[in-house]
Design brief:
The longest helix is centred in the first third of the chain and has 23 residues. The chain has 3 domains: 90 residues, no CATH class; 75 residues, lambda repressor-like DNA-binding domains (434 Repressor (Amino-terminal Domain)), CATH 1.10.260.40; 53 residues, no CATH class. It is mostly helical. Helices cover 67% and strands 0% of the residues. The termini are far apart. It contains 13 helices and no strands. It is elongated, with a radius of gyration of 22 Å.
């Protein structure tokens, strides 16, 4: 039996560092309260909210952090330096955040292989809860050995996943599949210019997969068509 990798083990060091950082930040907040620095306390509040919003899109969090950085530049050097420590911590988290496309592709390949999260856990030794959060973009970029295990279990090339995990590959560049283009394009919009959400792009991927993979022959035409209509209705509800 494969040893299951628990996400607490994977991020154990981060938890220790985060606790140390939290204790220091609490002391800074208390100091600013005593000094009556409402302007600094406002920034501290924004940083705390930003740090706790780990399930929000990384692009959105980066925009908010950039705005905070500009505000901090106006503070005294000593206070700016103290706030800079927390800013650096959050920036590191954002730099390590898993790209949205990686999780979407893993989910797409898993569903294409008709594997449940538990099935993939059994094949890779990576916990189902970790994989689930990875697919949702709520984890940091996985290690190369983990990506290898996922690729093997999903029956895709490691190099199909590496570019979307912020890792370089050594082979020659290949053309992207239409599904990779859809799932990896951050600024994809509908014909009326509305930016498509992650969920909407995943539904589009399902529609295209159905068109290419379903037979739509006499024996399955009705069932295949109903499934396609279901995906289309899901997409319409998201845009």
């Amino acid at each position: 039996m494969k040893e299951v990798v628990n996400e607490e083990v994977l991020v154990g060091n981060d938890v220790v560092n985060e606790n140390k950082d939290t204790n220091w930040f609490i002391q800074l907040e208390m100091k600013m309260k005593s000094a009556g620095r409402k302007d600094v306390l406002e920034i501290i509040s924004e940083l705390k909210a930003l740090e706790s919003s780990k399930e929000s899109p990384s692009e959105e969090r980066q925009e908010k952090l950039n705005a905070i950085k500009e505000k901090v530049e106006d503070f005294e050097q000593e206070i700016a330096k103290e706030l800079g420590k927390k800013i650096k911590t959050i920036q590191t988290q954002l730099d390590r955040a898993i790209p949205e496309a990686f999780g979407s592709l893993v989910k797409h390949y898993r569903e294409r292989a008709k594997l449940t999260l538990r099935d993939l856990e059994n094949l890779t030794g990576i916990s189902a809860s970790y994989i689930n959060r990875l697919e949702k973009g709520q984890r940091n970029t996985p290690t190369f050995p983990m990506i290898e295990k996922l690729a093997t279990a999903l029956k895709v090339s490691v190099e199909d996943l590496l570019p979307y995990a912020k890792m370089k590959k050594n082979s020659k560049k290949r053309a992207k599949t239409i599904l990779e283009v859809i799932l990896s394009e951050e600024d994809m919009t509908s014909p009326d210019g509305t930016k498509l959400s992650r969920d909407a792009k995943e539904e589009i991927a399902k529609i295209i997969s159905s068109i290419f993979e379903k037979k739509f022959d006499a024996s399955s035409q009705l069932q295949d068509t109903l499934q396609l209509i279901s995906y289309i209705n899901n997409l319409k509800s998201l845009i």
